[in-house]
Amino acid sequence: MEEFIKNGLNMAQMEYVVQLFNPSMDDYLYVYDLKEDYYRISSHATERFFMETDHFFDAEKEHMRFVYEEDVPLLAEELRQVKSGTLLFHNLHYRWLDKQGKPIWINCRGKVLKDESGEPAFLIGCINEIGKRQKADNATGLLGETSLSIYVKQYEGKLPKGFFLRLGVDDFKDINGGLGIEYGDFILKWLADCISENIEPGQKAYRLFSDEFMVVDFNGGNRDKAIRFYKSVRKSIDSFIEENGYQSIFTISGGILSTEGIDGEYESVMKLSEFTLGEAKANGKNRCCVFDPQHYQLFLRRKDLEAQLHHAVNHDFEGFEVYFQPIVDAGDYSLKGAESLMRFTLPSGERVSPAEFIPLLEETGLIIPAGKWLLRHAFSLCAKWQKYIPDFRVNVNLSYVQVMKSQVLKEIMAAIEESSIAPETVGIELTESGYLDSSPHFRKLWSGLKKNGVQIILDDFGTGYSNLHCLGDLEPTYIKIDRSFTAKALNNQYERNLMVQIIEMSHSLGLGICIEGIETKEELAIMERLAPDYIQGYLFGKPNEENDFEQKFILTDSAASGIPVGSAQNAF
Ligand code: C2E
Ligand code: CA
Ligand code: CA
User: Fold this and answer.
1) What is the pTM for the complete model shown?
2) How is 529-568 classified by DSSP, letter by letter?
3) Please, what are the domains in the chain?
4) pLDDT of 538-562, one tens digit each?
């Protein structure tokens, strides 16, 4: 049945109704007078969308100001059909712009009302935001994240004494993947019920995203109470699993955040609780962690460093430097070459220790571009210094990430060619780590370097993984005894005997030995008795910035006459 407005409401009355419903609705009612091209919408639309007033003439044209550009033709066509009378019900998914000009998906529905002569006169209906977050979650029966935010925000940052306990199912995607999404939902529903059963007066439970829940206690609850809550849920899970005949085995982790001593803004609560739950998962799952501000500071420091490293890599390696530490002949202390060592300085001037930034470069994969940059830089300096010392050798450290995930052999050979140095004057320092040398990548790199005449140095020997029987197999050019092993051998007769045996065996296999970490003349005297081939240590020189290295070690006649013992100077 077609509807006429003859006996119905007039425009003013309809506008009045729109205004009456406004305080009770999250959605937006509207009425559009098609003849007058006049539009009225619930007034709270002006807080959400890119519109200044809730009523305006020139409605079709005005709409184009807050409709997402791409969707304008779609809406124009729809309105044409409405106005011509061919479309009696308008139902369109398209995008409006929010206050910041960002597109928001809406569903606009409306009924066309005709006048006495049968012409379309009004469009009346409602607009919903489709992507809007739900206030409650019907799958679990709990309130949702939006409700949590309303609950917390009402305290305006001054939270009552209590706690947040953020719970997350461990490896939930495996449950969904293994037993199906329906089973996953069943588990979540069961968990929601279990949490609700444990709730005491003054506590509340919310479902966050996917497999996470938040228990809020604004009733004076302390850390121990939160832990008891977590344990009780865990206990229920154990019996649930048993009762279900071990059909699925799952665990949950928890992050506990006390409301005391934190800034009570909602965003902070979410960030800190997420971090704490993440810690529980990182520490092995099936456990709960209490927020630790020191851990959080370390985490922030890591995040910040990561961002700075990213920035540096993308800005011409700003802040990266290569330092050089001399390696001398153990017989006459003449300079044989140098190990290149990466350095990183923050824009603030803070120098970050390699022990801190190298693992971060490895984890983020940034060691690949940074290592490539270092190769080029180190080799070009090597070429320069060979004009003074023709057989000067430069060593470069390679990380396992470079070995496993990049075309590092190609890069090394390309950098050697670019700088026109002989491959024999390049040493690649690799750490043998038990699993690395059995991987095909490692083997390929190793044999590729050998074939091309590049020296291979087995680094960090004596730090745990070192496998004596690999030596004959891998045949490195020489072995570098790590300074931790040197330190032990200096203090302990047993370790010293061990080192003697290793050196003798290496020599019998035709492999050289470099002892790293010699700092004093006394240490040198002890170690010299073991007859190594090369020495690297602070006694002969610390890692130096390239110009300093050049001044101190290249432009002197140290290659011929030997480095004066104890020449280590300022460096970092
Ligand atoms: P590493 O390969 O064992 O490098 C030798 C480290 O021992 C250097 O520390 C060097 O400064 C230090 N050292 C040498 N002689 C002495 C000594 O007599 N006394 C003391 N106390 N220390 C000595 P650095 O430069 O801090 O580097 C630490 C680690 O960072 C390196 O250990 C290496 O594993 C890594 N690293 C540095 N640069 C690079 C790089 O370009 N690539 C990769 N993959 N790793 C690098
Ligand atoms: Ca090294
Ligand atoms: Ca070492």
Assistant:
1) 0.76
2) TT--SEEESTTT---EEHHHHIIIIISSSHHHH-PPTT--
3) 2-129 (3.30.450.20), 145-291 (3.30.70.270), 318-341+370-570 (3.20.20.450)
4) 999 999 999 999 999 999 877 777 7
